[in-house]
Amino acid sequence: DELNEDPGMLSRSFTGTLKGDMQHVLQRARSELHETPETFHTAMADLRASVEAHNETVPEDRRVVATDADLLRCLRVRKWDVDRALDLLVVWDHHRSDPSSMLSPIDTAVAVDVLSYGFLEVLPVRDNDGCAVLIVPDASRMEAAMAKYDLTTIARAEVWCMDQLAREEATQVAGVSVIEQLQGLSLGLQMRIMAMPGVMRTTRFVGSVPAGYPMRLGTSLIVDAPCHVTALYSTARPFLSAKLRSRLLWVRSSDVPHDDQVARRFHRQRTLPALLGGPLRYNFGEWLQARYREHVGREWVPANAYSALPTSASDTSLTAYPDLPPLITHAGGRK
Description:
By secondary structure, the protein is an alpha/beta fold. The chain has a five-stranded mixed beta sheet with strand order 1-2-3-4-5. It is built from 14 helices and five strands. The N terminus and C terminus are likely disordered. The two termini are 26 Å apart.
């Protein structure tokens, strides 16, 4: 249920770039999730009561600490099933309060510095399913981040990034999709990643995301995967659900111009990233700078992969990032 049941239900006019497109995304809440004002208020009240009842039965250090924003994320992922939302919330909150977990809070300045190496970015537009889009533009950039940070810190920065996206109602409703350009992932780099401290914890976390992290998952478009990656996938494939396997789409960049799977997810003249031969150009450093300004309260000086790039203010060919809703502050001081 954490995956979009019918990713093609949005209007064919959706382009991911127009203000009116948001109405198509929110329509999913009313139709697929059966979200109405009555559902909203009733389920929120029931989940609050369930949390209070849960907290009365567990030791103090196991009590759930959550805001209404947290409750809403869990309810939407679990399609307003209060019992399943409570189960998700309990697991999620446990991970957030565990210092060794990938979901343990990370300082914003550290998260921004990790992501400034450019191995993971957010597109300034949505895909045709209404999903926010994470993109791995060049897997080889991971090497520079690994020289400074351990895998646990890198994973926490990635989760921090997804938490920022989850501030948008449209992302809570439609979810997140991923584009991964893996041509630069050499066998040597993959082996170094596998040998890093924390890799087993990270692997276990990734495997438990549907059960322990409130985010709906869209498709993953995997581009130019080298043979050692496909071999690893073949080994893991029997352990993946059929639904998850159906969301992993493997393409070659040379096939992108006429690939139906790509055309179904991106508007070729508006939202197809330059990485895939489309017109969409952007500077992810602008997104990082905006988040740094929000959380830290001062300006971030673009560094590493973004230190010398033009911005949308100086280059009109670059697509600017839309504003995010106000910050969500978790109760108990967690952000």
